[in-house]
Specification:
The complex is a heterodimer of chains A (340) and B (531). Chain A is of the alpha+beta class and 340 residues long. Chain A has helices spanning 44-52, 98-103, 111-121, 137-150, 167-183, 195-201, 219-224, 229-235, and strands at residues 4-15, 18-29, 33-37, 59-64, 67-71, 74-75, 83-86, 155-159, 187-192, 204-209, 212-217, 239-246, 249-252, 255-258, 264-271, 276-279, 284-293, 298-303, 309-314, 325-330, 335-338. In chain A, helix 3 crosses helix 4 (137-150). Chain B has one domain (19-270, 292-530): MetI-like (MetI-like fold). Chain B is built from 22 helices and no strands. The longest helix of chain B has 34 residues, at 56-89. The chains are: A alpha+beta (340), B mainly alpha (531). The A-B interface holds A 52-54, 77-79, 81, 83-85, 87-89, 91-97, 104-105, 107, 127, 130-137, 139, 147-148, 150-151, 153, 164 and B 1-5, 172, 174-175, 177-186, 188, 192-193, 196-197, 199, 268-272, 274-278.
Chain lengths: 340, 531
């Protein structure tokens, strides 16, 4: 059990009659990388701005370390919170050269040398005398990170930090940023609407929808065992098949799975495409309807005997043609939800 | 590797410019240089240039003029910074309306403003009129530095407020958040991050204001403040040897150029239009500060808008009451509109080839021509007028004191405005639409007529209106160059105010204000839509 650095309790923020953040409670462990994942407009950026101190909450509290920074009678201004933020569009100071941007939050000591060190850490050694507009998007992103780290914050918040970058660069920068944060043992909260990004960079993920936290857990937990149909759908491809609850078991077209003891009546069974395999020899007889080839894998849509379509993710080995007859087998664990 | 964004000019085509465009642009550029070159020749001919400009009284005049410009700069900044911030970035009630109201003082040419102030506070003015019966004999002195400063500050501050307001609404306010999260206090964030980002807009606005003050002739001469323009005019009128006037006019140009250079030097390397991201127009909540903020906006609007208007109306009513015959000036109004319309059309026609060249075919040639065309900025009206008076009288007597020469003076003076509008609208049209039309079989002229012109027309007409408005208000060149008997509203106001005939001055002044209110209001509304 690690120590919690950030504890959020019952935090609420309204804009007029819109509840942007609705009684959110969260704990973030010291040194963890935490992802806040949700569709756009779910309130995740507002939550981040509340933690940074740019917004005042209507109820609830935020503690960082031993200190309450936000509460009914408490509002520590952003500059006193030691919370750093990397903004979606970086918010570099356009009138300052890169090294001055980085040195902005440095109070004393050899500011020049320290700024150069940080630029070195983010891989921009020697670019200190450039102006922000003379850098590429990825470089600007690194300057923003270096500038935030320079102020030695206890927590770093990153608001959709990679969304303005092209996909290849995004992936590279993502793992670089994670390495930097991990090597410096910095507690970080990412906000993103990209599930792949959230699952790949963080140690824990919170799924936020409509201002509420729906589920918190390790990436593999939330992916494999989503607590609601919406969370399951948001996190990736999901098949839903009708099933029948029967006291501790659920029957559905692909077989019988264990469920809660009190499960009964109609239910939905969620099966990830990766939890299925196709073979020529055995299994439930299915027919290929359609296939999408991605290179690293392929997604095959097949028709079950009942007529329901279902998606299967398989290795890219051989191409499958529509109409081909194959056998389907369940290899992973399905998840049972109340019927929609 | 860094990408040099400057290398990619939007709207540029990398081919040779059509010769017709280059030739036309070149002719315009040469014509623009004519007054300046002739002024130099004329000042050199007199042989006493150095003696004239190093004369003690000249230096005193110069210092006085620069001091006035600096003081007006400070005054306009003191009004514009809060006004722009309140109307662009806060929840001030009716802030859009305030933004419009505080831009409207532009409809008062400086000499109309001076007329209003003199008519209100001067000898035999409104205040004395009202207080006289109560036994108050003297009113505070309005003439001189104080009067000139007051009038120029009150009626030029929108030149600073408008760009400042645009800059504030375009500001990336997350940079303030970033500064806060890096440990800066709210005030620290303002001074270290926000204000420096506004610096270019402040510098550009102050440039407009100080150039206005430097070249202003109407307000200073009515306020009897001996700034350089007034001294030049007196010299020209009173002395037979006009080379001294030419030398002083050249000195004025030099000062203006110095100021332009200083502004360019402050710009530095920074870039202020941030890249891609969405702009969140964040609004600061004023809370109880709402009331002082409203009081501030209301008092500025009162002294710069309500007061001058009521003074003018007061004089018309008083004159009518006293049975004075009020001339409704059909001819002067017609002359003004005629000159302004011709001036606007001529400016746009001259600007188009240069804009085309500089936007579509950038290069050394285009840059040079463009730079020259902006020289009007540095040429005060009185300097241009004097140059053309000398030139006309000596070389083309047929044109001397004719409308074409006057229009030419307007073109030299106001081409930069028209050029700005044409450039902006051309930059906003995608050159690919022209290329598409070419691939569909249209030849160049047809592309220009069917594709380019329709796209740039809205921007051009806005630019035309702007020129129209400024020509309408122009005084010194009109005074020196207009054909004999060609009275405009501007010259009529100037001469009648000089003689203390406030009623006679108020009628054309109201007319002029009403006419120029139309383009100003349109311009201000457009500005509103953009910001």
């Amino acid at each position: 059990m690690t120590n919690n650095l950030i504890s959020i309790t019952g935090l609420t923020k309204r804009f007029g009659h819109v509840v942007a953040v609705d009684e959110v409670s969260l704990d973030v462990g010291q040194g963890h990388t935490f992802a806040l994942l949700g569709p756009s407009g779910c309130g995740k950026t507002t939550l981040l701005r509340l933690i940074a101190g740019f917004e005042r909450s209507d109820a609830g509290s935020i503690r960082i370390g031993k200190r309450e920074v936000e509460g009914p009678h408490q509002h520590v201004p952003p500059e006193k919170r030691r919370v750093g933020m990397v903004f979606q569009d970086y918010a570099l100071f356009p009138h300052m050269q890169v090294s001055d941007n980085v040195a902005f939050g440095l109070r004393n000591g050899d500011r020049k040398r320290r700024a150069a060190e940080l630029l070195d850490i983010v891989g921009l050694a020697g670019l200190g005398s450039r102006m922000p507009h003379e850098l590429s998007g990825g470089q600007q992103q690194r300057v923003a990170l270096a500038r935030t780290l320079a102020a030695e914050p206890e927590v770093v918040l990153l608001d959709e930090p990679f969304s303005n970058l092209d996909p290849t660069l995004r992936q590279r920068l993502r793992s670089e940023v994670r390495q930097v944060l991990e090597s410096l043992e910095i507690t970080a909260i990412f906000v993103t609407h990209d599930q792949e990004e959230a699952l790949s960079v963080s140690e824990r993920v919170a799924i936020m929808m409509d201002g509420r936290i729906h589920q918190v857990g390790r990436p593999e937990e939330v992916y494999a065992m989503p607590t609601s149909r919406r969370v399951a759908e948001f996190l990736g491809d999901a098949n839903f098949l009708p099933g029948q609850g029967d006291g501790g078991y659920v029957r559905f077209e692909l077989g019988r799975v264990r469920a809660e003891d009190d499960t009964s009546g109609e239910v939905d069974v969620m099966v990830r495409p990766e939890s299925l395999t196709l073979s020529a020899e055995d299994g439930l007889p299915v027919e290929v309807i359609h296939s999408e080839y991605f290179g690293h894998d392929q997604l095959i849509t097949v028709r079950l005997p009942s007529g329901n379509p279902i998606k299967v993710r398989i290795l890219p080995g051989r191409a499958l043609d529509p109409g081909q007859k194959l056998g389907l087998r369940l290899t992973g664990d399905p998840v049972v939800f109340p019927a929609a | 590797m860094a990408i040099d964004l400057r290398a990619i000019a939007p709207g540029a085509i990398r081919t040779q410019a059509p010769p017709l465009v280059t030739i036309l642009a070149g002719i315009v550029a040469i014509a623009m240089l004519l007054p300046l070159v002739y002024l130099v020749i004329r000042a050199a001919e007199g042989g006493a240039f150095v003696e004239t400009v190093t004369d003690r009284s000249t230096i005193r005049t110069l210092v006085r003029t620069c001091f006035l410009a600096a003081a007006v700069g400070v005054g306009t900044l003191a009004i514009s910074l809060p006004a722009a911030w309140l109307t662009a970035a806060t929840d001030l009630p009716l802030r859009r309306l305030w933004a419009v109201l505080l831009s409207l003082p532009l409809v008062f040419p400086s000499y109309v403003g001076a007329l209003a102030m003199i008519g209100a506070l001067g000898t035999r003015g409104m205040l004395q009129d009202l207080l006289g019966p109560l036994g108050v004999g003297t009113v505070p002195r309005i003439y001189g530095f104080e009067g000139a400063w007051l009038v120029l500050t009150l009626f030029t501050f929108p030149y600073l407020m408008i760009p400042l307001r645009a800059a504030i609404s375009g500001l990336d306010r997350t940079t303030e958040d970033a500064a806060r999260s890096l440990g800066a206090s709210p005030l620290g964030a303002f001074f270290r991050v926000t204000l420096p980002q506004l610096r270019p807009a402040i510098a550009a606005g102050l440039l407009l204001v100080t150039l206005y003050v430097l070249s202003d002739f109407g307000a200073v001469s009515l306020m009897r403040f001996d700034s350089l323009t007034r001294v030049i005019f007196i010299e020209y009128k009173s002395s037979l040897d006009r080379s001294a006037a030419a030398s002083l006019a050249l000195l004025l140009v030099a000062v203006a150029m110095l100021i332009i250079w200083a502004e360019a030097a402050t710009r530095g390397r920074a870039r202020y239009h941030p890249g891609s991201a969405r702009r969140t127009n964040r609004i600061t909540t004023l809370g109880p500060w709402k009331f002082p903020a409203l009081a501030f906006c209301a008092s500025v609007a009162f002294v710069s808008l309500v007061l001058p208007t009521s003074v003018l109306v007061y004089w018309v009513i008083r004159g009518l009451d006293a049975g004075q015959s009020v001339d409704f000036l059909g001819s002067a109004a017609w002359n003004s509109v005629q000159a302004a319309t011709l001036g606007a059309i001529a400016c746009l026609a001259a600007a188009m080839p240069i804009a085309l060249l500089s936007v579509r075919y950038p290069g050394v040639m285009a840059r040079t021509i463009e730079k020259i065309s902006y020289s009007g900025y540095a040429l005060p009206g009185i300097s241009i007028a004097l140059a053309l008076v000398f030139f006309g009288a000596n070389y083309v007597p047929a044109l001397y004191q004719t409308l074409p020469l006057l229009i030419f003076a307007y073109v030299v003076r106001f081409l930069p405005q028209a050029l700005g509008a044409s450039r902006t609208s051309l930059l906003q049209t995608n050159p690919k639409t022209e290329e598409a039309a070419r691939t569909l079989g249209a030849h160049r002229a047809r592309v220009f007529g069917r594709i380019t012109m329709p796209q740039v027309l809205p921007g051009l007409s806005a630019g035309g209106l702007l020129v129209f408005l400024t020509v309408m208000k122009e005084l010194p060149a009109t005074l020196l160059l207009s054909p004999i008997g060609f009275d405009t509203l501007a010259t009529r106001i100037w001469s009648t105010t000089n003689e203390g005939l406030f009623t006679q001055a108020a009628v054309p002044a109201i007319l002029l204000v009403l006419i120029s209110a139309v383009p100003t209001t349109i311009m201000v509304w457009r500005e509103q839509r953009i910001t």
